[in-house]
């Protein structure tokens, strides 16, 4: 019988293709041999429609069968037992619809006893093309730098979501502020999802000590210069994708600071702790450079880009993991690692950004990643790491950290204001979903 004590509940958003599918598949592969034999993985994946959801479940069932066949060769008779230890469930979620986020959250809160991990993976690039002359110049001048920290993608400007509120029925017009499309898909939709699912992440049985984990997905392209506090949604500027990832870094790294706890506790619904709950933890991962459909290219260019990625790895780039299976290593490690391991590493090195890395032979690993204004762990004077560092990176100083912390504090205040404001607007329009 499936109970909260013997089930490990994981939600992965955007699992129909690319990195999300890689994360879901890798979760199955790593859960079965590493977790207790009496524990079951309940894997909940979200897609935007039924067709994609059905295709994802089919792909994951095949992955499970493949994993079981390998195990059967080593230990005959184990296949059936392993298959029973994975339960797959699909749900609908459109991150560009705040009502859709609320509806999914309500369904899960009504049907799931708890959540152990939520991996916020889904997102969009918002790019319209590539500046080819600049791309050729960047790559030919410095191959690894040009392919690891690209600055030649052309971003859309002014993209906003469809209206979140229905048309007003009376004479007066209903005011609705713009909601940046890339901002909403990459961060704000997940931000609301994390808030609504926080009660499930906080639920802990007496046998469980580890807090629920909310894992946000960042990028190597979370450049400081792309973020403007005055245009936090990056509607009027270029590089909306990069800006949304910088926002993710700022929010995650500063979520543990005393100065942000008023907002963080409100966000996580942990203003009044109880003996039956544990405050969820926010972690940050990125997939390295992974070959996914997030940047749509015609077939010939897609094949060429994949080759470019492999060449970058052979030239010594630790971030060019290329395949989604290897790109998933950081997120899956954060999902399954012992809490004592994570706590020890953060106590020793500070709160960090965990990335999927690889060596020239294709052996993947998890590596801390430098964040502008935070370094590797927010510690002044830390020793710079030799590999995987941007050539434009600067040593962490008290001034740069102070700015990072200040920006993070402002972001937490503004995002909480936005969350409350949108909830009020949805309720007043009669479309908001009550979580009670």
From TrEMBL:
Q: Which UniProt keywords apply?
A: Lipid biosynthesis, Lipid metabolism, NADP, Oxidoreductase, Steroid biosynthesis
Query: Could you tell me the superkingdom of the organism this chain comes from?
Result: Eukaryota
The biological process GO terms on file are: ergosterol biosynthetic process
One CC-aspect GO term: endoplasmic reticulum membrane
Q: Name one GO molecular function term.
A: 3-beta-hydroxysteroid 3-dehydrogenase (NADP+) activity
Q: Membrane-crossing residues?
A: none
Q: Which Gene3D superfamilies match?
A: NAD(P)-binding Rossmann-like Domain
**Family that this chain belongs to:** Belongs to the short-chain dehydrogenases/reductases (SDR) family. ERG27 subfamily.
* Protein name, entry field: 3-keto-steroid reductase
Query: What organism is the protein native to?
Result: Paraphaeosphaeria minitans
């Amino acid at each position: 019988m499936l109970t909260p004590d013997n089930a490990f509940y994981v939600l992965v958003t955007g699992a129909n293709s690319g990195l999300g599918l890689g994360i879901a598949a890798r979760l199955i592969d790593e859960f079965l041999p590493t977790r207790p034999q009496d524990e079951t993985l309940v894997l909940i994946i979200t897609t935007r429609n039924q067709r994609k959801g059905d295709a994802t479940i089919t792909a994951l069932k095949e992955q499970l069968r493949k994993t079981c066949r390998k195990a059967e060769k080593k230990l005959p008779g184990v296949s059936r037992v392993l298959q029973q230890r994975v339960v797959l469930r699909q749900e609908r979620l459109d991150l560009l619809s705040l009502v859709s986020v609320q509806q999914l959250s309500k369904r899960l809160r009504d049907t799931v006893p708890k959540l152990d991990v939520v991996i916020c993976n889904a997102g969009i690039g918002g790019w319209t093309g590539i500046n080819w002359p600049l791309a050729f110049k960047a790559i030919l001048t410095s191959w690894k730098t040009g392919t690891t920290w690209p600055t030649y993608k052309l971003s859309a400007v002014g993209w906003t979501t469809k209206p979140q509120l229905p048309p007003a029925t009376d004479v007066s017009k209903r005011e609705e502020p713009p909601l940046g499309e890339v901002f909403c898909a990459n961060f704000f939709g997940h931000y609301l999802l994390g808030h609504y699912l926080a009660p499930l992440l906080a639920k802990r049985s007496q046998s469980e000590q580890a807090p629920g984990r909310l894992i946000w997905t960042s990028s190597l392209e979370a450049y400081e210069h792309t973020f403007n506090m005055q245009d936090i949604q990056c509607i009027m500027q270029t590089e909306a994708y990069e800006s949304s990832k910088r926002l993710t870094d700022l929010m995650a790294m500063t979520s543990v600071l005393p100065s942000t706890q008023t907002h963080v506790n409100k966000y996580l619904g942990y203003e009044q702790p109880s003996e039956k709950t544990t405050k969820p933890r926010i972690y940050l991962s990125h997939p390295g450079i992974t070959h996914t459909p997030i940047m749509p290219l015609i077939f010939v260019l897609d094949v060429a880009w994949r080759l470019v990625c492999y060449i970058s790895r052979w030239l010594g780039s630790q971030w060019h993991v290329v395949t989604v299976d290897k790109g998933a290593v950081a997120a899956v490690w954060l999902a399954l690692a012992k809490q004592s391991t994570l706590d020890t590493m953060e106590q020793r090195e500070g709160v960090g950004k965990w990335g999927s890395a690889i060596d020239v032979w294709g052996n993947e690993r998890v590596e801390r990643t430098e964040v502008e204004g935070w370094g590797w762990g927010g510690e002044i004077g830390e020793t710079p790491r030799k590999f995987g560092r941007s050539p434009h990176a600067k040593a962490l100083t008290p001034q740069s950290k102070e700015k990072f912390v200040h920006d993070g504090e402002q972001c937490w205040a503004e995002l909480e204001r936005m969350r409350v404001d949108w909830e009020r607007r949805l309720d007043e329009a009669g479309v908001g979903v009550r979580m009670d």
